[in-house]
Amino acid sequence: MRILVDANVPAADACFGGLGEVVRLPGREIDAGAVRDVDALVVRSITRVDAAMVEAALQAGSRLRFVGTCTIGTDHVDQAALSRHGIAFASAPGCNAEAVVDYVLGSLLTLAERQGWRLADRRVGVVGAGSVGGRLLRRLEALGIDCLACDPPRAEREGAQGFVGLASLIDACDVVCLHTPLVAEGPHATHHLLDAERIAELAPGTVVLNAGRGACIDGQALRQRLAGQGDITAVLDVWEHEPGIDAALHDLAAIATPHIAGYSLDGKLRGTHQVYRELVRHLGLPARVTLADLLPPPPVSHLVLHGGHEAEEALRLCARAVHDVRRDHDSLLRESRRRGMARGFDACRASYPLRREFSTLEVTLNEKAHEMAPLLEAAGFRVTMV
C-alpha cells in the first residue's frame, strides 16, 4: 500500500508507516500526477482535492480508494466526486478547536493590553457556533464575558432561543469573531458574510477577528474601512487568496497571522490520529497507535503564581507562557518582507515552531493567588493550590 501525505502532517510515519509505504510532498505540490500511483491520500487544507484532480488521477490509473484531511474544515475536498468514484473520505472534526480558542483568547488579551481596555468589559459576538465557535462561547461565558451567538443553521434546527441574527450581533457587540465554514451559495451562504454593507455597519472601536475562512470577509471592503476611517481593529488569521494574500490588508491588520490559529502540536496530532483511525477502519484493521503514543511532554508544563497580578494580567501571563500570538504576527511580517507575501506565508506555516495548548500548562497558586483559580480554570489551564 502506498500512502501520500502532506509534508506538514506530523507523526505520519508513526501512524501510517505500519500500513505501507509513506510518501511525503508539500501540500501545494499534491496534484493529479502525484496521486497517480497511490492507494491513500492524506492532506491538509491547502491541497484542493476537486473533481478534476480525482478524475485525472483515476484516468491515469490511480488506485486511490481513501482520502483523509487532518483538518476540521472540508471545503477543500469535493466529497461528492469522491463518492461517485467509490473513494472513502475522512476528516478530523474538532481536532484543533481548542487551539483556535486559545488563539482567539490570546489575541484579544494582546489587543486589550495594547489598546488599554479589559476583555471582561467587552461583549463578544461569535458567528458560527460549531466545533470552534461553540467551545469559544463556553470558555468566554465561563470567564464571565457577555456573549451573543449567531448560527442560522443551528437556530433553524434547534430553535431560535440562544441565537441572534447577524445584524443584531453586529449592532450589539464590541468584538465580532467569525468561525463559520465557507459555504458558497444557498440560504446559509457564508462567502463574504461580512460584505461591504455589513462592514460599514460596524461601530467605531469594533474588533473583527476571523479565524474561520478567509473568504467569509470581503477583504477589499475591510481594507477600505481600515485605510479610510481607521476606526475598527482587525485580527486576521485566514485570508482570501492564500498564500498570495492582500499585502495592504495585511499591513493594516493589528494582528496578522498565516492561518495558524489551529496549529498546536496537540491539534495536529489529533488530526493525524483521527484520520489514521478512519483509515484502519476502512481497511478492516485494528488501531495499534494511540494518541498518547504521539504526544511528547510540553516544553513549559508548570508555572507558579504568588499573587500581586490583576486577574486579566495573570491570565495574559499564563496564555503567553504557552503561546504568544505576537510571535506569529512578527514571523509573517518578517518572512513576507524577506521572501514576498506568498512564499513568506507558506514558509511560516512550513517551519511553524512547537506550540502546545492551554490545557498542557499546570498553574500552581500560592495562598495570596487563590482567588485567580476560577478564572484560570475557565480559560482552560490546570490549576493547583498550595
How are the secondary structure elements laid out?
Elements: E1 2-6, H1 12-16, E2 21-25, H2 32-35, E3 40-43, H3 51-59, E4 66-69, H4 79-84, E5 88-90, H5 97-115, E6 124-127, H6 131-142, E7 147-150, H7 152-158, H8 166-172, E8 175-178, H9 196-201, E9 207-210, H10 219-228, E10 233-236, H11 247-252, E11 255-256, H12 265-283, H13 291-294, E12 302-305, H14 311-322, H15 325-339, H16 341-350, E13 362-365, H17 373-379, E14 382-385
Parallel strand pairs: 1-2, 1-3, 3-4, 4-5, 6-7, 6-8, 8-9, 9-10, 10-11, 12-13, 13-14
Helix pairs in contact: 5-6, 5-14, 15-16
Write up what this structure looks like.
With 386 residues, the protein is α/β, with parallel strands linked by helices. It has three domains: 90 residues, NAD(P)-binding Rossmann-like Domain (Rossmann fold, 3-Layer(aba) Sandwich); 160 residues, NAD(P)-binding Rossmann-like Domain (Rossmann fold); 84 residues, Erythronate-4-phosphate dehydrogenase, dimerisation domain (Ribosomal Protein S8, Chain: A, domain 1, 2-Layer Sandwich). It contains 17 helices and 14 strands. A six-stranded parallel β-sheet has the order 7-6-8-9-10-11, with helices on both faces. A five-stranded parallel β-sheet has the order 2-1-3-4-5. Strands 12-13-14 form a three-stranded parallel β-sheet, with helices on one face. Strand 10, helix 11 and strand 11 form a beta-alpha-beta unit. The longest helix has 19 residues. The mean pLDDT is 96.
